[in-house]
Amino acid sequence: xxxxxxxxSRGNGSDLQxxxxxxxxxxxxxxxxxxxxxxxxxxxARALVRSLPAEDLYFTIxxxxxxxxxxxxxxxxxxxxRTFVDLGGWKxxxxxxxxxxxxxxxxxxxxxxxxxxxxxxxxxxxxxxxVREFTLIHDLEENPDVHVxxxxxxxxxxxxLVEFKGVEGPELAALRSILNDLIADNPFExxxxxxxxxxxxxxxxxxxxxxxxxxxxxxxxxxSLEEAARLFSRVDTGPAPAPATVAxxxxxxxxxxxxxxxxxxxxxxxxxxxxxxxxxxxxxxLVAEVEDPGDLDAIRRVGEMVRDYLLLxxxxxxxxxxxxxxxxxxxxxxxxxxxxxxSLTLALKFRADRLMKQPFAQVEGTPLLxxxxxxxxxxxxxxxxxxxxxxxxxxxxxxxxxxxxxxSEEVLARAEAQxxxxxxxxxxxxxxxxxxxxxxxxxxxxLGVDRLFAASVALALLEGKVDPRPVPSxxxxxxxxxxxxxxxxxxxxRPEVAGRAVAVLEPVVPxxxxxxxxxxxxxxxxxxxxxxxxxxxxxGKMSPIASVLLPMESGKP
Length: 557
Description:
By secondary structure, the protein is mainly alpha-helical. The protein is built from 28 helices and 9 strands. The strands form 4 sheets. It has a 3-stranded antiparallel beta sheet. It has a two-stranded antiparallel sheet with strand order 1-2. Strands 6-7 form a two-stranded antiparallel sheet. Mean pLDDT is about 90; it is low at about 1-10.
C-alpha cells in the first residue's frame, strides 16, 4: 500500500477529499437509520448526498429499506440513481423489470425536472424492455379499429395506442406517468421511442443493457470475472516472522484484530488508501463469487470472507504481533496480504484433496473416516476451505486465526492416519475390503466407520485376531465381562483391556498410524463404558442397545 507521503503540502483538492473521507467514516460508524437521518437532515442535504459515492448511498438505502428511503433517492444525482438501478435492478445477468419500476417510483418527487433527468440516465434499452414487457403498442394507422381492454394511453398525434398489461396499482400508475413525462418533454422523441420499442429484439436489448451496466460497474471498481478470479491465486506464503515475546502475550489474551491495529497506526492518507484497496478487494471477491453486486446479504457475507483472509494474512506476516500490522500494510500490497491468508487455507484443501484421492480413502463411496474427521475433510475440500465445528450438523465456519488452522491440521493428520489404519484392518486391498464389509449386510454409509471399528476392537478382544465382522450375539455377555468391572454407579474398564486390543490390531497397521489406532481404541472403549457398562453391571447381560454401538450378528445392524 502506498503510504501517501509527499512533500508535506496539500492543495484545496486534497483537503476536500480528506474532508469527504472523514465524513464517510463518520457516516459509516452510524447505524443505518441514523445514517439516513444524518444525510437528509443535514444543512445542505442535496450537496452532501451528491458528494458521496453512489454505492455508499445504495447500501444505506438497502439497510433501511427502499420504501423508507425515498427522500434519499430523490436527493441523489441522476448518475447516482443510475448506479442504484445498476446495483438493485439486476439479478446476475438478467434485468428485474419490476425492481427497476420500484426504483423509478421511489425517485419521483415534487420536482418533475429532477425525476426526468434521472429517468433519462436509465439505459434506453432498460426502459424499452419495461414498456415492451408491460404494454402492447398498437399502430392506429395500421389498425384504427383495434379492440383493447383495460387502461390505455394514446399519443398526442394519434399514431399509437398504448395498452397496459401485466401491471396494476402503483406499478401501472408509475408506468403511465413515465410515458406521459416522456411525451410531455419531447413528443417527437417519445413517438420514436415507442416505434423502436415495437421492433427491437428483447434479447438484444437486454444484452446491450448488460454490457453498458458491466462497463459502469468496472468503473466503480468491480473488475471483470477473469481479473477477479486471479485474486484467489495461490502464492508462496513464506515462513512467518519469528514471533516476538509480545506475540505470545497477545495470544494468551485472545485473538487480536490485526486490521484494526493497522488502521490505528496509519495516518489519514494511508487510511484513505487502505480503505480504497479494501473496497476493491470486496468488489473483486463479489465478482469472483458470482454474487450480485447489489445483494446486501452477499455483500455482508463476502465482506466477512475478505476480512477473514486479511486477518489470517496479517497474522502470518506479522508473526502474530499486532504492532507490526501497520508496517506490513505499508510494505505489502493489500491484495498480497489477502492472497497469503487464502493460500494458508488452500494448503489444507490441497492436502485434504490428496488424501481423498488415495485408493483406500473411500469404500463404496463412504470415506474411511470417523464422523469428526470426515466433516473436517469435507469442509476443507470446499472451493473456499472452511473449518468444521465439533457440533454435529453445524455449518462449517471460515478460518479466522492461525490457531484454527493448526487445529484443522491436527484433525487432518488424524484423518490421514485413519485412512491408513482402517484400510489395513479391512485387508489392505479393495477386493478384500468389499468382502469384509459384505459380512455386515448393510451399505458402509449405514454401518458407519465408528461401528465398523468398534466391531474390530470387540473381535480382537474376543478372538485375539484381526477379523472385522458383526459380534456374535451369543458372545455379547462374554464381551461385557471382558470389558467392565466395578459397580453400576462406578463402572470402569478392566486393566489392560485397551492394551490387549491394541496388541492384536497394531501389527497390521502402518507404524505412522499406530498412535491414532491407540487413541481410537481408547475412545471406543470409553464410549462402550459410558453407554453399556452401567446396564451390564446391573443386569449381568448386555443391553439390547449394544447394537447401536456394535454391529451384532443377529440384531439390527
